[in-house]
């Protein structure tokens, strides 16, 4: 198996995720994307449903939308914290208001993502929360010849340390969190700059970043893992040697 | 005031003069009576009773008053006197008798008049002032209460209650203000609700579109360049749409003052944090960033400060040229960001309008947001281009 969490580091198949989202189409899309990453997903469309589930079962991560028909996701977080449930919490919100973001995080959410988001971004965030919560017992991510120490932000390729800039590092980790998945240029731009960059202007920068990243990885003698997908974006694939 | 003083003064003066003569004449008449009584009793031409002089042989048919002035050597001035001439028969001969009495001099009366008039006026003015003050305070009390309500009115808070008043005009004013404020508050609330709904509903469905497009782009069965192209368009448009919508909502929220948790913030730190985001992109294009920053504390919402600075620096990077430069100068009075760029023919201040950069496919809303934030905090902002290619944005706090 060649992927970001192969081997001892993270037994992904055991990771259980609860998704709380009232829009069924979006709920299905999220479930679909996370299932394809071999996470075990459970879903619910309401505050009440979610409240029952978090009290009955143990989840590694709870993904919760703030706007629910019968309550606020923020209240759900309060309940989770009140009942000493240790699950990681990822907040989804359509509101881009700074206040909500801060409120979610001060209530004890681990991360915050605004709609609309790429599934690749969601997967990367989920994996980052899992790493930060140290469920795996290690901050090391290995894929093929590439090893990333996420705590110290160090990258080794074929046992050689390579120096990456902040953006290159973020892009590489984003790729490694989504091996085999097409990452669009828009998705990569949002991953690096959030809402701070106008998408159309950022493609040149992304092109340069990826060119430099490739160069640094290939300098160690390994094959180019970042393939361009014409007109769309890029894809990270380790060829089986 | 002055005509009143003049008319009043003249009137007062004439009255005094009249009284002056009247009283003197009355007194002299009385003295004449006593003189005649004294004469009839004693048969002497007395020299008492304000007697002045005798005019032998002068026969007055009836008593006559005369004015005269005499020189007063003591005061070295002419003094006005009143004389009463009448005839009396003494020992068979007719004598004219002149009685004389001092008149109040003209200047004395004038002086007195002026003193009295001025004194009175001052007193009246003082009393009017006191009364007006009291009355005004009482009458305008409901007005000032209403004004106070308006000054302290915050749209996010509940509607102010106007105190009841008996004065019709103020009653009407209060009713109008109440309904006006209610309308404003309702509009504000509707606008906010609309924003929330637009944000939630639109973004959720955009998320679905985007997720579906992303899934298809990833599905191996979606072969064919044509399909990929079309999918990419759907995906791109949905991303773009959501970004436009986020920006518009942000503008609307800034307008609504939904971010207004002002704190003392060191702008220097905000700039440095922002540069962490953009320095790498600048380096890719060989852009040199030169800083001249002084620590400057301003009172601003931290989220808005971040948006302001990020937009400014993003623009400086975005509209720069290969191997260009960015100069950022910050001091207590201004923030000036200069960057090299392409020549721009039009008026650079039109760049603050929304979507003005449409032709290059940019959102062109970044500067509109910058201007909105500056307006909210009453900063003046100007955009100048010197030497064709040096763009400068100047924000004065």
Measured between the Cα atoms of the first and last residue of chain B, the distance is 50 Å
For the largest interface in this structure, which chains are involved and how many residues does each contribute?
A: A-B, 46 and 52 residues
Q: What class do helices, strands and sheet pairing of chain B give?
A: alpha+beta
Head-to-tail CA distance between termini of chain A: 13 Å
User: Can you tell me the residue ranges of chain B where pLDDT is under 50 for at least 5 consecutive residues?
Assistant: none
Mean pLDDT across all residues of chain B, rounded?
85
Order of helices and strands of chain A: EHEHEEEHEHEHEEEEHEHHEE
Could you name the ranges of chain A where pLDDT drops below 50 across 5 or more consecutive residues? 1-10
Q: DSSP strand (E) fraction of chain A?
A: 15-25%
What's the structural blueprint in terms of helices and strands?
The complex is a heterodimer of chains A (241) and B (397).
Chain A: E1 16-20, H1 24-36, E2 40-44, H2 47-56, E3 61-65, E4 67-68, E5 71-72, H3 73-82, E6 88-93, H4 98-106, E7 111-114, H5 119-132, E8 140-143, E9 146-149, E10 154-157, E11 160-162, H6 166-177, E12 182-184, H7 185-193, H8 199-218, E13 226-229, E14 233-236
Parallel strand pairs in A: 1-2, 1-3, 3-6, 6-7
Antiparallel strand pairs in A: 4-5, 8-9, 9-10, 10-11, 12-14, 13-14
Helix pairs in contact in A: 1-5, 2-3, 6-8, 7-8
Chain B: H1 2-42, E1 51-56, E2 64-72, E3 77-90, E4 93-102, H2 106-139, H3 141-151, H4 168-218, H5 225-255, E5 262-266, H6 267-284, E6 288-293, E7 297-301, H7 302-318, E8 325-330, E9 334-340, H8 366-376, E10 380-386, E11 390-396
